[in-house]
Amino acid sequence: MSNGNNDAVAPNAHRLLWAGFMAILAAGVGFGVRGGILDDWSGQFGFTQQQSGEITGFGLVGFGLIILFGALLADVVGYGKLMIAAFLCHFVGAALCLGASPAYGEAHNQAAAYNLLKWGQILFSIGNGLAEAVVNPLVATCFPRNRTHYLNILHAGWPAGLVLGSLANYFFDAKSGVAGHASWEVQWALFLVPVVLYGVMCLGQNFPKSEASTKGVGIGSMLSEFAAPLLLFLLFIHALVGYVELGTDSWIGQITGAIMASPANGILLFVYTSALMFALRFVAGPIVHRISPLGLLVVSSILGCIGLNLLSTANGIAACVVAATVYACGKTFLWPTMLGVVSDRFPKGGAITIGAIGGVGMLSAGLLGGPGIGYKQDRFAAEHLESKSPTTYAAYKADKPSKFLFFKEITGLDGSKKATVLEGEAAKLTPEQTKDKPILAEANLVGGRMALKWTSAVPALMAVCYILILLYFKAKGGYKAVNIDEGSKA
């Protein structure tokens, strides 16, 4: 925090900042662990990639909805009460997920396991959403003179959590953990550690209201901000941010693991990119002062597009590391800088406008990113396998077809059957399974590569949008933060 205490307007501002950091870190730990155990769920319960993507999507949809509703209630109910509710949701959500294996049982009740994981992830995401509905406007209120810088520091908790969650999977994965074996249930429960920490850090603290609420701006005036075309355009762009950042992160470790022919290396690469994001978010302030928030968003989008394209064609560890580095540098500043831009330009919106941005991003990631990228993997893997070996495809395809939005209906591969071959010990495979293994691995790789390639179109569109906004502000004399007493300006 380069500017020290002079940026803070509350005596406990820095404690609240780090409590918020820990709450977001908890969400990141859960997200990181979940990304590593998707294969465990698929293999144990027989989910397709799209079903797994739907479960991860539920873990984001609730997140987005609650940010929206929590933002409306934040100043009325009180930030402290919302943090208590977040704490409770995290615990109940964990308990539901941990009940999936007993519910599946000897009867192989896939529906019961699916529903417990679904509702567990929804409650987990509600806890995340309640916490984020508080901490974003809280930090913007505590540090009004340098919002983008401190919001980036706050959101450094996210990649820090991804690092810890992914390392837990790397060291204790039940199939290939390098430090021993722990079930996916043990790994999943680890996110409760930072939950307890943020709960303790919030005890006895006074939570200020947003600047807009303090100055008597009513709910009606806050909501009137959404009549601004610029804010609506920013909401659309942030939906794209949610898709490309969180949607891709749901799958990136698994896809790069297939590219490098090593699930463990895929996890380590994700740890590396998350650690890079963590470090970079602490230096957002100096970058913003040199090129403005919008300039940073343009550069970030271009790097994200290039990085995803490079990953889709990478071969070998070195090429994957280079491509992933470019991609990580691209996605690092997108989410928190967007929050800063909205807070700068629409201060009268208080918690509501910031909450709307975060909510739309999470909803997009949950409803579109997770299942959409899963669908793309299913589609291209299935089409490749069917064209190469129709009999192999017939043996491994899922029992039911699936569909995503207006795209054509497809029948993906059964995750349990595929896992038996791709992850099973060679000595235990039948001759037919041994024969099928390389072509299944090839189809799996093609699906992942094509999913990344098509996803790269999203940051390309974002870059165009940011350039248009940059030109708009250039024509108006340049980008600058708006004082709440001036009124918000498009």
Write a concise keyword list for the protein shown above.
mainly alpha; Growth Hormone, Chain: A; 76% helix; 0% strand
How would you describe this protein?
- This protein is mainly α.
- It has one domain: MFS general substrate transporter like domains (Growth Hormone, Chain: A, Up-down Bundle), CATH 1.20.1250.20.
- The protein is built from 22 helices and no strands.
- Helix 7 runs antiparallel to helix 14.
- 57% of the residues are buried.
- The model has no long low-confidence stretch (mean pLDDT 86).
Task: Note the topology.
Elements: H1 13-45, H2 49-77, H3 79-98, H4 100-104, H5 110-142, H6 147-154, H7 157-172, H8 184-189, H9 192-202, H10 211-214, H11 219-224, H12 229-249, H13 252-259, H14 263-280, H15 284-313, H16 317-331, H17 334-345, H18 350-388, H19 390-396, H20 415-422, H21 431-455, H22 457-475
Outline: globular
Run of helices and strands: HHHHHHHHHHHHHHHHHHHHHH
Q: What structural class results from the helix and strand content?
A: mainly alpha
| CATH architecture level-2 label | Up-down Bundle
Question: Could you give a quick summary of the protein structure above?
Answer:
By secondary structure, this protein is an all-alpha fold. It has 22 helices and no strands.
